[in-house]
Each structure stands twice: as structure tokens, then as C-alpha cells.
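Service request form, structural biology core

Requester: graduate student, group of Dr. S.
Request type: structure prediction, single chain
Budget code: on file
Notes: please return the result as C-alpha cells.

Sequence provided:
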Amino acid sequence: MRGKLWVSAVAVAGILICVRGTGQAQDKEKAAAKKIAIRAGRLIDGKRETALVNALILVEGDRIVSVSAGGAAPAGVEVIDLSKATVLPGFVDTHTHLLLNGDITAEDYDVQLLKQSIPYRAILSARNARIALEHGFTTMRDLETEGAMYADVDIKNAIANGEVPGPRMQVATRAMTPTGMYPLLGYSWELQVPKGVQYVDGVEGARKAVREQVMYGADWIKYYSDRRYHFEADGVLHSMVNFTDEEAKAIVDETHRLGKKAAAHAIGSDGIAAALRAGVDTIEHGDGLTDALIDETVRKGVYWVPTIAVGAYVAPGRGGNWTKMVDLEKVAFQKALKKNVKIALGTDAGGFDWKEVNQAKEFEYYVNYGMTPMQAIRAGTVVPAELLGWSDKMGTVEAGKWADLVAVSGDPLKDITELERVKFVMKGGAVFKNDVH
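Core staff response, request fulfilled:
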């Protein structure tokens, strides 16, 4: 009975969201049939080391047809004049939580799971998706619903069907930990409180959980490799590992067997090491990366998603070791950069309120930590496209790719903070924002 009620509630939420989006979907279909010529004053295409000046981008439907230096737009084609702007590929955030709206303290988290229904949170997530799109993020990987079951799959589908505006999505649904190792915790045993994850125990339990999540629409499987981060006499950030090696390996093996990829929340060195042993595809956060672990990450071709902005945002409110962890991650980032770790931009948006922080702040941290502006831009476009398995469709501005484009007024190669002031957004050939004057 509870399952039926939950499905009905989500259905109601979907109706509420979709009523507003139907007209937008129709407009998008009309836009998709258009031929558009975009005149870019500067084009950072994700391939060249420098910007292409006075570029002409031809778009037909949802794809880029051609990119050229100069040239005239074909007769009868709609022209979008961005000749005073810099055009780039749409941004990609590989670590978000659309169904969460701030998570500095335990109380912030508990209130959302205890006092907000899943339908209400789904409605807010549609708002968050639009905020992300307007900030230039045309693609996102959402790494768990934090107790909202499989609502991320519904959001992904609503966006894909044109019912609500938002980025293209890959989603991880519920995430996994062993029993008792993730909030909500500390309540009376007489109360059945919501859980932020799916509890998973044992090798067979792990395989079954992966199958279940994939059945309900998971593109990725995420699990929590560790918790309880602390420093020891060696100066290394350590952690308590959640799963046994056999359980973690079962999660990853089953994920790969079903043609999906695995992401591990791993902050301390122990959790990172365990995740690498299990064979994950991405390390999330990774504050405690040591020289040896960085070398292992490179050797195995694993992507690192550092989520720097969220750490800096929550550290003052959380206290304890969090400020020191932020400083430690800067050192790890600089070492990883020198050793050519594949660093993909991810913000952990939802850990901060979507209305308070622009996800593009992450670019600024990367430059401050040692990347060139071009490296930072690629970390938020080209590298995530590889991570998501969509390099043939996105990440660069070239013929055959999706027409996912953003524009800013200034030159982000001189001032990376320009990416926090996006003026134009096109996704799949449809213009969602144009404030270029």
C-alpha cells in the first residue's frame, strides 16, 4: 500500500510540473526544425589552444552542421549575433544532487527528508534544473536522490521529453551503504525514519541492489566507500571504510556486467584506496589523495571529481577537520594536475543551495589551484564528455555534435569568472537564454 501511495504522489508531482512545461516542449519542437547561424566574436571550441575569432556556427535541428572562420550565413537562415561575445561548449557538472537544497548541518539534511514530501522535492528539483541550465550547464550527472527514491529518473525523463527545461541527465538513483552507515541516524528505534541511501549488505545483496537500481533507470551506480574522516600522526587524511572489499568489488563488477559505470564517494585515503581496489570509474571528492594513490588513479585511468566549491562552502558550518580538508585537497589537486590525472568538473550542487551558489564557481577554484583557464574549461566540457561516454555527441563545438552552446560577454581565457556570468544558452539547437546585447 505504501508503494502505491508513493507512486501516486510522484505522479501528482509530475502533473504539476508538466502543466507548465507542455508549451515549452512544443516551442522546443518548433525550434528543433530550424536552421540557425551563430556569429561568434570568439569561439573556444574545446579543441584549439586559442580562441577562433569571428567564427560562424551553423546549426540544423539539434546538431552542429559546420564551424568555420568567417564566412557568410546562408540565405534565409535565422542569424544569432554573438559577435561581441565568447562562445563555448555547454558546461558539464558531473556531480550534483538535484533533489537536495543545502546540506551544511545534519539538521539541514534531516528537515528535508522528514518535512518535505518526495513530490515537493521533485518540484524543487525541476526549479534547480532550470537554474543550472540558465547558468550554462547543459549536461549533468546527478549522483543520488538523498532519500527521494528514483525521482531523479522522472526528472531526467521529464527534461528529455521537453516537459521542463533542464540539462541532459545521467542519474545514479539511490546510492548505497551498508546498514546503519548513512543518515538519517540517531532517532528512536521505534520510529521508521527515511533513509538517505539504499542499505546494502553482503555480496549477493550488493549484486541484487545494483540490478534493482538499473531496473528502475540508474545510468550510474554510486556507493559510499568511506566515512569518519580524521588525521593521524602520519599527517594523512584517513577514514573508516564502509564495505568489505568483497562487497565493493561485487557492486562494481555487477555494475560493469550490466553495462553501467560506478562512482565512489571516497574522501579519506583509506576509502580512496578501497574504491580503487574495487575498480570504480570515478573517485568523488578525494580530499585524501596521496602521491601513491594519485599514481594508482593515473595507472587505472580513473577520473577524479574534486568538488572543491562545496567543501569550501560547508567547511565553516561543519567545523572540525573540514577546513583542514579543504587545504589538503588543494595540495592533492596540484599534485594530480602535474601527474595528468583526468580531472572532471563536479560541484556537489545540492550540498549548497542552488539559489545561493553558481556552479561555475568551480572553474575559478581550478584556476586558483593551478590550471590554466583553458585547462579549467576543458575540465568542465571535454573531460566530462569522456567520463559520461558522450564524447561523440558533446564536449566540443564541431560538426556532428549536439548544438549545446553558451556565451559570455568577456574573455574567460583572461578572466575565468566570466563563466559565472553566462548570457546565452542553447541546448540541442533551442535557445533557452539570450541576454546578449
